[in-house]
Write a structure and sequence with these properties.
single chain; alpha/beta; 10 helices; about 55% helix
Amino acid sequence: MSVSVMVVDDHPLWRDGVARDLAERGFDVVATAGDAASAVRIARAVRPDVVLMDLNLGGPSGVEATTMITGSLEGTRVLVLSASGEHDDVLEAVKAGASGYLVKSASAEELVEAVNRTAAGDAVFTAGLAGLVLGEYRRMAATPDVDKPQLTDRETEVLRLVAKGLTARQIANRLVISHRTVENHVQSTLRKLQLHNRVELARYAIEQGLDVEPEGT
């Protein structure tokens, strides 16, 4: 089956040209969009394998759109295609969930290969940018994060149980506290971590290495 692709760019000529080139090379171009809000709405409707995302969309940025798309569509990957090769732009895109980053000076062959590799689950970067991203993550891992939100022991325990899939009432029974107290801990943790829902809490718990294996496994 061909890879389904959505092209997001605020310049119609560029957007249509990329979409046409990809279609001619066998990709299933299922949609295009010219701004972040439309990109998120349409992506959620058509669920493409790959979203080819520009960063400068004239309003809410491609970084914001990437965050919302990758946060809500598990099977969709975002490949940034941007005129900017600035380090900050690359790192922001990756932290937002982008699977790769290609500059617009890339050749048609490089773009085709990048889209295919992104759909296959690879991390794809224009030459030189992969080393930048790897170096940044190594630096972050080696540097204590003094600004990292600090959770209380109780908040951490509630977080771990949320990630295991327990309901608020089950957590309350387990910890011998009230249902309202559990909800207060969940809301406090969401605020501290700047997350939006229990799915994001579970993802955070996994990333932090908490024991979140479902019980009985």
